[in-house]
């Protein structure tokens, strides 16, 4: 997850949305809610993908649900 953020933000390296996308997709498979938040931004802004507001909204909703589960201590 941290490596994905480094590529997404370009910390000490060039921004690479393609690598970030791949890493966020992998993190999503492990129910990491923060990855869904970044995926929503990537798809909304069309960063290394064709902009897709519907997909962005789906990821955003998933990120909200996963953050709420984490806050409430729910582990699904």
Commentary on this structure:
With 76 residues, the chain is an all-alpha fold. It has a single domain, classed as Serine Threonine Protein Phosphatase 5, Tetratricopeptide repeat (Alpha Horseshoe), CATH 1.25.40.10. The chain has helices at residues 2-9, 17-28, 33-45, 53-72. The mean pLDDT is 86.
What is the strand content? under 5%
CATH homologous superfamily (4th level) name? Tetratricopeptide repeat domain
The assigned CATH architecture is Alpha Horseshoe
Query: What is the domain total for the residues?
Result: 1
Count every beta strand, where a strand is a DSSP E run of 2 or more residues.
Answer: 0
Protein name: Beta-lactamase
InterPro entries: Sel1-like, TPR-like_helical_dom_sf
Pfam family, one: Sel1
Organism: Proteus mirabilis
Structure at a glance:
The protein has helices spanning 2-9, 17-28, 33-45, 53-72. With 76 residues, it is mainly α.
Structure keywords:
76 residues, mainly alpha, 4 helices, Serine Threonine Protein Phosphatase 5, Tetratricopeptide repeat, 0% strand
């Amino acid at each position: 997850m941290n490596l994905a953020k480094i590529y997404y933000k370009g910390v000490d390296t060039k921004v690479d949305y393609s690598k970030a996308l791949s890493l966020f997709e992998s993190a999503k498979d492990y129910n990491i809610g923060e990855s869904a938040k970044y995926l929503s931004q990537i798809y909304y802004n069309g960063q290394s993908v064709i902009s897709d507001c519907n997909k962005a909204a789906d990821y955003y909703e998933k990120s909200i649900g996963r953050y709420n589960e984490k806050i409430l201590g729910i582990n699904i």
